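User: I'm putting together a small comparison set for a docking exercise, and I want a reference complex before I start. The sequence is below, and the ligand is LCLJCK34. Could you produce the 3D structure with the ligand included, as structure tokens?
Assistant: Of course. I'll restate your input first, then give the structure tokens for the complex.
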Amino acid sequence: MHMQIDYSLYLVTDRRMTGNRSLIEIIEESIAGGVTIVQLREKHASTREFFDLAVAVREILKPHRIPLIINDRLDVALACGAEGVHVGQSDMQCRIVRRIVDRKMIVGVSVSTVEEALAAEADGADYLGVSPVFNTPTKTDTPEATGLQGLQKIRQTVNIPIVGIGGIHSANAAQVVSCGADGIAVVSAIMASSEPRGAARSLRAAIDSGRFAPEYRSQT
Ligand SMILES: Cc1ncc(COP(=O)(O)OP(=O)(O)O)c(N)n1
Ligand SMILES: Cc1ncsc1CCOP(=O)(O)O
Ligand SMILES: [Mg+2]
């Protein structure tokens, strides 16, 4: 088994949003603001570029004991010594990933329905990315948004940790958490912010307030 993972504030990177800033600097700032887990998401990099970047990101996460998750690519995750890999419904299936790696590797799976959630849990997923909770311009090739109600249904169905992703920012993060999510995963709320440390801090405050706001649960 791997160490206990804190999924509460999950940063998913996107270099299209970094402008002239360095990805490493944004990640470091976001950690100072309270990010607990980082996914390197590179949809256009060459394999070599992806690997080199993964090694560099891993170096900065290590002293903070923050797990690195690699999007889509189990080969890159294994090669750079990342703690985990995240796969979606059109990526390598979780049960096939599990044939290759043991329980030490964190495997996350994107789901948007109760059926997908149950299948991923049975296949050995460590956590689920409920995706997308809200529509988002960051990723448009998605199934219909689950909304808070869909997220809640999935929460009531599976026993593994779940994070909400898609259109989440400091004004709605508390609701997502109060619906039972173990955390929120964000791209633009941190990556597109001119102040990633402050953005992460605001998200952290919202997450913490959501944990103490069970009243949302009965409303959704
Ligand atoms: C935490 C988290 N949840 C969902 C996703 C989406 O994964 P996927 O559906 O495979 O889409 P891409 O990110 O690969 O475009 C995610 N990356 N992370
Ligand atoms: C990677 C991903 N998977 C589902 S929605 C999404 C993008 C989320 O981006 P944002 O946090 O900017 O809405
Ligand atoms: Mg994917």
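The chain is about 40% helix and 15% strand. Residues 12, 131-132, 136, 138-139, 142, 165-168, 186-189 surround TZP (ligand 2) (CB under 6 Å).
User: Thanks, that's exactly what I needed.
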